[in-house]
Amino acid sequence: MNPDPPSTSNSHLSQASQAAGMPACVVNCAVYRRDGSRENIDLDRISEVLADDDSSFVWIGLYEPEDEVLEKLQEEFHLHDLAIEDASVAHQRPKVEAYGNSLFLVASTAQVVNERIAYGETHIFLGPRYLVTVRHGASLSYAAARLRIEREPELLALGPSYGMHSVLDFIVDNYLPIVEEFKATLNRLEHAIVSENYHRATVKRLYDLKRELTYMRVAVAPMQDVLSQLVRSNSPLIPEEVRFYLRDVHDHSLRTNETIDVLRDMLSTALGVNQALVTLSQGEVVRKLAGWAALLAAPTLIASWYGMNFDHMPELHGKYSYPLMIAGVAVVVGVLYRYLKKVRWI
Questions:
Q1: CATH code where residue 145 lies
Q2: DSSP 322-340
Q3: Which of 104, 224, 309, 329 is 20 to 30 A (C-alpha) from 85?
Q4: Count of domains in the chain?
């Protein structure tokens, strides 16, 4: 897996926020108007901007915000105490909750860091005139999602709910490359499994891969319920046009989750096949050892008979007894060797 740096975009935007006199945790703070225009503002201008123009909405992006910033936003948008508490503490399960005329969403994010999947959370506050995204842990910046809707003024006119859709779509689409990389890794491991040589590292990699997929399923599966609730929601905050787009995101989430389930089944099968092949290989080794032991047993048995100190033994004092015994041993070993070779014991 190719690791994505978790903080490149965050640090760049944090520097821009500090240059604008805002806290470093404020990644983005802008007002979007129905005509598609955008204006960067600071937190103190939120009320002023929303009071002057009723056809605009504010989109604020935060990364691991300070309590003072969340309290400021709670004051500006009248956010519920419980939602603010969840957004500040994090470690929440994916969910959708309604608080009066606002929605609070929690979505799980995933990002590859140092060839491991790191997980984070995004908390979304959706209101009639605002969209607040709060990121915790491993999460890519939503700058790409913002740029996409800024290029489509007709969709931007749908309001903050379309911005919410863009964020959720970005989160779900980011699952797919990780799953595809898992699929490619599994294909490589399958070739290693059926090779002639046993490698302990292959079994360990299979186990690690299954563990990572299990963790990812825990993160991805609940997203289906979140998106399903949004698609079926009767909230006026989500217009019918936006529900069509959310339905598409829900389909992507279903496909990702199904792929994860298939890969987990394939990994279980691969682990079972690997164990069976190792057992079979050990059986082959034991069988070959038994075959060579049988070849050695025949001359050992005959030699032990003639090594006894008895006077009256057949051919003991004969002139050709020794070469005849050697020839007899050779014949017995030869016949036994051909038989064992035929039955593939050696």
A1: 3.30.460.20
A2: HHHHHHHHHHHHHHHHHHH
A3: 224
A4: 2
